[in-house]
Amino acid sequence: IGLAAIGLSSDSLALVNRAREEAAEFRYQYGYDISVDLLGRRLANINQVSTQQAAMRPLGVSSILVGIDRTDQGIPEPKIYK
């Protein structure tokens, strides 16, 4: 999975580190790599929480996730999420 981020450099670094943590935790818990779809949803949910709380500042970064997921038939399929 690749992640391209544009915006504030410190926020981009925080987002990339969080994505790495989520992927590593998923691999540790379930024994296989996280899908691009699930990682994108997890990051979106985490970032959405910061927009709903007054004490937290939303991240000033826009990101794109790219990777290859397998379909139900096992066929590799490229995915991109903004």
Mean pLDDT: 90
**Strand line-up of the largest beta sheet:** 1-2-3
The N- and C-terminal alpha carbons lie at a distance of 13 Å
Largest sheet: 3 strands, antiparallel
Beta strand %: 25-35%
Helix count from the secondary structure assignment:
2
Percent helix: 40-55%
Instruction: Give the CA-based shape.
Output: globular
Spans of at least 5 consecutive residues with low confidence: none
Order of helices and strands: EHHEE
Structural class of the helices, strands and pairings? alpha+beta
Using the CA coordinates, give the radius of gyration: 14 Å
| Number of strand elements | 3
Annotate the secondary structure layout.
Layout: E1 2-7, H1 9-30, H2 36-52, E2 61-70, E3 76-81
Antiparallel strand pairs: 1-2, 2-3
Written account of the structure:
- This protein has 82 residues and is an alpha+beta fold.
- Helix content is 48%, strand content 27%.
- The protein is built from two helices and three strands.
- A three-stranded antiparallel beta sheet has the order 1-2-3.
- The radius of gyration is 14 Å and the shape is globular.
Name a few traits of the molecule.
alpha+beta; three-stranded antiparallel sheet; 2 helices; 27% strand
Brief rundown of the structure:
Helix content is 48%, strand content 27%.
